[in-house]
């Protein structure tokens, strides 16, 4: 697995972990993220159980595990959080922030020492050594309880499955040609995003944010004007296409 620093300003950093060539062939490639501020860190969608050892090996090169005080799971999918039971053994003290609706499901992955902090539907925030990180509602995009993460100082939006693309493990970290990237995203969004109303609600929320970088859980990261291009593209895309297709 590779690691890449996306943002660094003083003691405030964003690091991405992705492009794991050793992952099982039929397991989809995922992006994991970590926010570090001073002596605290938060793992965002820390990944599936199958890549825990690779993730841990990358993370400890960046920061001591004692400083990982928070985790975030945008929703309940196993590729996002099935490693929880192993992180539960590795972290001496941490809190998982995730939608309230999924607590009873996520606990099936294993939680003895990690605390669960349910995020209400309206969203919320957490402080990392004084840095406020916001949880932005993204319900039904694609999960019925779902959130994006926004760091206004870094101007980074972690969007979860929104913006996801089915890419190869040797693909670049960043989207380099937006038009060429569309075919990698289109069917995923049409099939996995069930609600045009929810889609427009999320677009309205995040279009008000100052975003330099949008980081999805799969595929390339959007930078600069490609964030606006993505919102414009998604706004006109008809989603929920499986309905009536049988």
From TrEMBL:
Top-level division of the source organism's lineage: Bacteria
Domain (Metallo-beta-lactamase) ranges: 29-218
Pfam families: ODP
InterPro entries named among the record's database cross-references: Metallo-B-lactamas, ODP_dom, RibonucZ/Hydroxyglut_hydro
The name this protein goes by in its record: Metallo-beta-lactamase domain-containing protein
Lineage of source species: Bacteria, Pseudomonadati, Pseudomonadota, Gammaproteobacteria, Vibrionales
């Amino acid at each position: 697995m590779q690691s890449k620093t996306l943002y660094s300003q003083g003691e405030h950093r964003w690091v991405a972990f992705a492009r794991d060539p050793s992952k099982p062939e039929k397991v989809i490639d995922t992006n994991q993220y970590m926010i570090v501020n001073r002596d605290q860190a938060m793992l965002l969608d820390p990944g599936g159980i199958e890549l825990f050892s690779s993730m841990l090996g990358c993370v400890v090169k960046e920061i001591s595990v004692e400083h990982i005080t928070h985790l975030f799971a945008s929703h309940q999918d196993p590729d996002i959080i099935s490693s929880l039971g192993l992180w539960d053994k590795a972290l001496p003290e941490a809190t998982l922030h995730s939608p309230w609706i999924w607590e009873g499901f996520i606990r099936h992955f294993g939680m003895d020492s990690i605390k669960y902090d349910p995020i209400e539907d309206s969203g919320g925030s957490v402080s990392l050594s004084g840095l406020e990180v916001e949880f932005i509602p993204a319900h039904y995009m694609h999960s019925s309880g779902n959130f994006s993460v926004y760091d206004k100082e870094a101007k980074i939006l972690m969007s979860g499955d929104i913006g996801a693309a089915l890419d190869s493990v040797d693909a670049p970290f960043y989207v380099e040609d937006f038009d060429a990237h569309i075919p990698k995203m289109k069917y995923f969004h049409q099939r996995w995003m069930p609600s045009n109303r929810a889609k427009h609600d999320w677009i309205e929320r995040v279009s008000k944010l100052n975003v330099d970088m949008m980081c999805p859980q799969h595929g390339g990261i959007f930078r600069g004007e490609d964030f606006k291009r993505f919102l414009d593209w998604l706004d006109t895309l008809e989603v929920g296409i499986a309905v009536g297709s049988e």
